[in-house]
Amino acid sequence: MSCRTFTRVVATAVALTASTLIPPALADEPVKVKVFVGAMFEIGQNTGDRAGEFQHWYERYFSQSKPISVKGALNPVYCNDDGVCGSVLGMGKVASSSSVQAIILNPQFDMSEAYFIVSGVAGTPPERGTIADVSWATWLVDYDLGHRWAPEEGEPGAPTFMPRKGYEKVRLFQLNPDLVGWAMHLTGKTNLKDSDSARSYRMRYPQEAAQRTPAVKTGTHITGDTFFHGPGMSAQAQYIAKLYGADDYLITEMEAAGIAQVVQRTLGDRRFLSLRGAVNFDQGNPNETTLQHLDPAPGQTAGGFAETVDNIAAVGGRMVDHIVSHWSEWKNGVPPLPRQ
Length: 340
Known about the structure:
Blueprint: H1 3-21, H2 24-27, E1 31-32, E2 35-39, H3 55-62, E3 77-79, E4 84-88, H4 93-105, E5 109-110, E6 115-124, E7 134-142, E8 146-148, E9 161-163, E10 172-174, H5 177-187, H6 196-202, H7 208-211, E11 216-223, H8 231-243, E12 249-253, H9 256-266, E13 272-281, H10 290-294, H11 305-325, H12 327-330
Parallel strand pairs: 1-5, 2-4, 2-6, 6-13, 7-11, 11-12
Antiparallel strand pairs: 3-4, 7-10, 7-13, 8-9
Helix pairs in contact: 4-9, 5-11
């Protein structure tokens, strides 16, 4: 064998060995993510059955996309050719935030310029919202970081919560006001779907806000692993929001503050949005107890779930489409809001 032939054989062998050692996903360029949409659960399949939090997003952006497996994430990630990616992250702060961290740190994705939309269903207090509302968060507040005690063990009528020192940087997140402003500018007048069952259910509540037709709103989203119910817990959520200097409590959910902490630590928080649709009130009407509201009789639920998850994707999709179609303006950060 000549020296030249030997060199060629060795080079070929090295190349073949390298190709077997380097996974294809790592050999390719990472996906340049422009917008990442995170849902918390899906009821069944991603398409073709009853829609949960992800199905409308999937059908809008990812129906032609192949799943990308990510170690440490609960479910695969889907990405389209426009740089929009999404995944079902899991319910609760731990499941969802651990999925997000695994996705952000995975070399298959370049998240350095990505905008995040945390998207899902939620509850709302009847004093401020109604079924099928869609809300962009102005603030995220962690409901769980503090001290609590039974009402009968404190002063009558006094709050039963006290913040715990040391959590100041992780219990409260103000979302970028310019980005939230853009979200309302682009989506605030979206025509939202409603249902006869939701219209009927609203009338059980005397509050004016509860009886209104659904709309796009902004306010504080309270994150708690406890699925709290009742006027007492609702009042406590508002107490905590005001104690921390946030806007009025509008949405109760289980993930956003945890995810925001992961995104803030790894990428910064200027490109982060929380989008929620209200599928229940956080308390019963005056004619039912809290336990009756928690465990309703057949036919006594709020209705409007299907319409709400559709509304969420319709509102959020306007934001996604605008960012992607104007990427040269959004790539380096949130552009100035247009003058009204």
